[in-house]
Amino acid sequence: MRTAVGGVVIALMVLLTLVSDMSNDALPHWLSGVVGWIAVLLLVVDVKKSQRWQTGLITLAGIVLLVGASANGLQWAQAIGNNAGLVTMLASVGFLRLIALPRGDRKNHQLPVGFAAFVKTMAGVSLFGAVINVSAPILFADRLHDQKALGRLASQSITRVFTSTAAWSPFFGGMAAVLVNVPGMRLSFVILACLPFAVVSFIVVVVEARWRYAESVRNFRGYPVNFFNLWIPAALASIILCLSRLAPGWSVLTHISLSALLLTALVLLWRSGVLGSGKALGRFVVDGLPTMINELQLFLAAGVLAAGLAAVISGEFVSVLSEFSASTAALLLAVIILFAVAGVHPVVTVSGATPLIMTLNPAPDLLAVCYLLAWSLGTCASPLSGTHLVFQGRYNIPSWKGALWNWPYVAFMYFFAVALLYLVAMSL
Predict the structure, then answer these.
(1) Which residues, other chains included, contact 207 with Cβ-Cβ below 8 Å and sequence gap of 6+?
(2) Domain layout of the chain by residue ranges
(3) Quick one: which of 4, 98, 125, 418 has the most CB atoms within 10 Å?
(4) Does residue 148 or residue 266 have the better pLDDT?
């Protein structure tokens, strides 16, 4: 009974989050966060003791930082519901399991094996991740995890390839943040300027896998990249594109959440009719949604910590520079990445740095490229990024370990990013 109620409360959180965003925050954003925390209290006994300790410490640290920064009511409201949108998206994507292949068929189906399978899997993550965001690595990783527990090679490769798409995809939060903070940037120029970063990132991931994990690559069971197995992400991408055209004011996470729910409902109606689809959805609410308690508590706790860190560092940047050149951009890129490693999301650093950077009268395109590269590398290196938290809650890979695995890659790609910044500056 308690578990079923917890599932219903999570479903209510999803509804409140979507209504809040679609109504332009007419419904308080923090309300869905409160409901989410109620679900955590109901289901927390189902979580491992070590996980409860970790979540408690993260939440406590965030509260201490908020109190220490004398945070006002708005910041507390943000802390409560900071990641409600992301949790809503995860819950909504979870409904797609109802229209995927039956679990028995998934396990009996022979996945492609070897280097070619690895390359095709990563290409699929990159292609669909650029459109359907973090739901793409979840769909791909879930399929791989069904066959075998996700290991280091698959985990770090998927997160690296996926986060590299944030450098150019217009469907990521990074591009939305840049469009808001950098007026005058040319979207087409910035996308074309950042595409080489994603291409080189993909090549680095593939080459490293072939050279450093040769044995694992030979035995790698990849995602069966063909029309039949990609119809779900393809259909999801199509619906997201339509929604983004019809309702550009809604957040990317809302587009993804509604698309996943709509696709699931339509397919279930086609397969089982109104009664059958209603029963399937109801069963998933009371049986399926409670299983995401790990992701739920991790994201809500991380949201409190992120709000605390934001309250402490906001407005504390000191500008000692007289111009915004390629060298300045390289320095800013390094600062944002280091803050991300410490747990401060790039959106926080970008928001805090922009007012001071704008006093240097920067070239909008150069600043936009710098921010997007920082978003890509920062989320890859941060233990509190959404991607790493998803992999911890879903595949039991500690977020700090996932981030640590990526630090050498981030350090290497930083130097390529700096070279790209100099090329962009020369072309302006």
Answers:
(1) none
(2) 2-427
(3) 125
(4) 266
